[in-house]
Amino acid sequence: MTYEAVIGLEIHVQLNAATKLFCDCPNRPGDEPNRNICPVCLWLPGAFPHLSGQALEKAVLACLALNCTIQRQSAFDQKVYYYPDLPKGYQLSQHHKPLAKNGWVDIVAEDGRLKRLRIHHIHLEEDVAKLVHETEGRTPISLVDFNRAGTPLIEIVSEPDMRSSHDAMEYVKALRAQLRYTGCAECSLDQGTLRVDANISLRPAGTDVFNTKVEVKNMNSIRNVGDAIAYEITRQTSCLEKGEPIVLHTRLWDPEKRVTTAMRAKFEGPCVPDPSVAHIVVDDAWCDAIRRQLPEMPAQKAARFTATFGLNPEEASAMSAERDIAEFFEAVVVCGPPPRKAAGWIGSHLMPVLKERNLALGATHLGAERFAALLDALEKQQINHQAARQVLVQLVDSPVSLAQILENGDFGQICDSTDLETLIERVLAAHPADVRDYRNGNAKVEGFLMGQVMKASRGKANPGRVRQLLAQQLAK
Amino acid sequence: MADLFTFSNPSPVPSATSGPLAGLRVVVQPNLSVQGWPCPAGSPALAGYTALSHATVVTRLAQAGAVLAGSSRMAELGLGLAGDTTARVLAEGRADLALINDTIGEARAAAAGAGLFGFKPSWGLVSRCGLTGLVPSMESIGLVAADPAPIIAALAVMAGPDPEDPSIPEDCAAGFRAQQPPLTGVRIAGVIQECVDNMDHTQRNAFEEGLARLGATGVTTRMVNLDQDDLFADVHHIVAAVEASSSAGKYDGVRYGHRSPAGKNWNEMVLNTRSESFGPLIKPFLFQGAYFQFHNYSAFENACRIRGRLVQATSDMLGQVDMLVAPTCRPAHDPARATTIEATYAAFGLTLPANVTGLPVLQVPSPARAPGTDFGLQLIGKRCDDAGLLAIGLALSSAAREGR
């Protein structure tokens, strides 16, 4: 029998609000342990939680970016469970009355078609404390760091609309792009500011039943999300083929061994309304004011880039996926270079340099004007392609001006025919056998000789002129 | 003195020498935070926990010139009155005003037992910030004194919005103002028929005396029926047990209080700590709450729904009369001796409806009776009509003084 996977994702995203969700402690989980704490986030007796207005605004902005309907009334419940990372015995979350419902994101499915994936709801909740396990030393101990306790989170619960690991990865990417655009969350799987739990079940292809699901956690990259889901589909398929029942439980993805292993029975604690936390009531005017803070989103930007700048869909998509890149692209184009050339250089050369350095654009010395000037020098053949790539690295890494880099770095192209002819004569003299070979009809040797000339010029020769002059010399 | 107080203020001087409460001596229960004072709320689970800052009401009382005398003894986490010495502190003249958290009727029952006035404000009128509470949706900090005057003066200071307690509802935002001048026009009190039906001879006599005194202040009475009267106790029991189970989750006895040395791992340590910490009344109550949370959530949801109906029915009735009247205590049920859940619900059966509905309620002592034989008279007011109720209390009090 062929099986079809049914996948739903629950995604926790940390909001980058200045304070925690229910107190005024700085929202900086990474600080020295237990530095950002107070009676509220330690849940000492008598302390009252008060909802942060900024966290609420950021959460609403995120919900709007994911096309959700904000609920007029929402409220917090106590999600009861006992664990050392939650010493008060319950987590404040919105179970009965979530902040927003009925959203969606669009992805490109494996067949190349646009697929709309629905979001069931988004709710606000507080993060729990972080456990640090010290296993070295005579007695292993576990420490609790409350810096993270009370950090504002949104949990985005999808409908079970995904059918493959491809769908799931594209969903996470699309959702992350939307959220990053709003500026309300960093969304790093690696840093744990975006955490994905996947619920996976199988059913006979073509049916619409929902079978027992298995929850998989602990994926710290989008690739791991895809791999864990693919692994789980294979594992469950083999279980079904062997006639073993699927049991509701939670599994952990092991990124080293690349397998999922059973962790525990899936636990759902009860959720009781909290009488001490104020209900959230929003009106249309307030929601509209938040909506006006939404920037132009990736899909709209890509459409405009295609229409205005003539980018093809791939280029438009690459230039709009991240907000800082999109804004940089537009700023570069304003300075004059051809838009498609700018897009090509940003996508093929600048983005790899940033990735290699793990740097955001804003953290480098490269501004739009410096980048545009580099493209201009290339266009005017002041430098060649290869030199331009080296100059780009310097523009990213140091504040030195383009003119200064060109002057110091000896990147100017050799275009002068006399200089080039001398160089070519020297190379031909050094490779008499290859020249004979060429003249006997082996045209391929020309490429080799061309490379030797470029090498002898240390990459500075104008390749077009070299090709022309070399052909003339060989023809003699 | 040691048997009355868990902590007595070593320097009982007012922090403000003038103010509306200048010199008023206040005793609190050790579940209300006074900076630097032990705040164990009567539970080994919180033994040794010291308050980090003042509760909002403590700050306000101190700024108005009140003197904090000390903290009394109290039942574990404030459920019931077993072992509570707060009213005795007043009866023995060691303080002028007591604050008793009223979860199921404690402030009123303690007042009735000592022949005093006891007032539970409308839910939300007084900030709970700094209160180590148990049942957040039902409890209010109650005020007990020999006369309504200090209750009115203190409530005027204590009530009103508090940025530290966002649960205060909008209808309480105006705070509390003593009614000046009091009592104009005809007032009608509805006597709850179901309470009278269940009375024995002794209680009926006492109750009718109370009604007569009420009549002397110009209040006319008539009988009313409170349908589904028997549901109040069940609703209180289920909702309170669930909320207590969550509240007591915070009072884990692990970060403060008694921590069990035994246990192979964290789970066992927490289980041992909690089973060693909580006493014989609170423990089964928490178990019951956990039962509804984990295994019978629909019963909790039904209780919440029925609670909504009871609130509405009571509010409708208070649209026809100005207040409801009932005795405070039942004969043969001593709230101070109730040490099981069953006995507690039996003893507080007449006080708990005001906790379920969040309505203001004043316990009025009978001047003619000795403490212990006084079943008390409860006047239950319209929501946020705290001032109107206390004005009647003042009239009753001055009539009693003149009659003496």
Characteristics of this structure?
heterodimer, A: 476 residues, alpha+beta, Arc Repressor Mutant, subunit A, 3 domains, nine-stranded mixed β-sheet, three-stranded antiparallel β-sheet, B: 404 residues, alpha/beta, eleven-stranded mixed β-sheet, 11 strands
What does this entry look like structurally?
The complex is a heterodimer of chains A (476) and B (404). Chain A is of the alpha+beta class and 476 residues long. Chain A has helices at residues 53-65, 165-182, 222-241, 284-291, 298-309, 313-320, 323-334, 339-357, 368-379, 385-397, 402-409, 417-430, 432-439, 445-456, 463-475; strands at 3-14, 69-70, 73-74, 77-80, 90-93, 100-108, 114-126, 130-134, 141-145, 152-158, 194-204, 214-219, 249-254, 259-265, 271-273, 280-281. Chain A is built from 15 helices and 16 strands. The mean pLDDT of chain A is 91. In chain B, helix 9 (282-294) packs across helix 10. In chain B, strand 2 (25-28), helix 1 (56-63) and strand 3 (67-72) form a beta-alpha-beta unit. Chain B has helices spanning 56-63, 86-91, 106-114, 148-158, 193-197, 201-216, 231-250, 266-277, 282-294, 297-317, 341-347, 352-357, 386-403, and strands spanning 5-8, 25-28, 67-72, 97-102, 117-120, 140-145, 187-192, 219-224, 323-327, 361-364, 377-381. The longest helix of chain B has 21 residues, at 297-317. With 404 residues, chain B is α/β, with parallel strands linked by helices. The mean pLDDT of chain B is 91. The A-B interface holds A 39, 42-51, 78, 80, 82, 84, 87-90, 142, 269-270, 272-278 and B 33, 39, 41, 46, 49, 51-53, 55, 128-132, 136-137, 163-167, 242-243, 245-246, 248-252, 254-255, 266-267, 270, 293-294, 297, 300, 304.
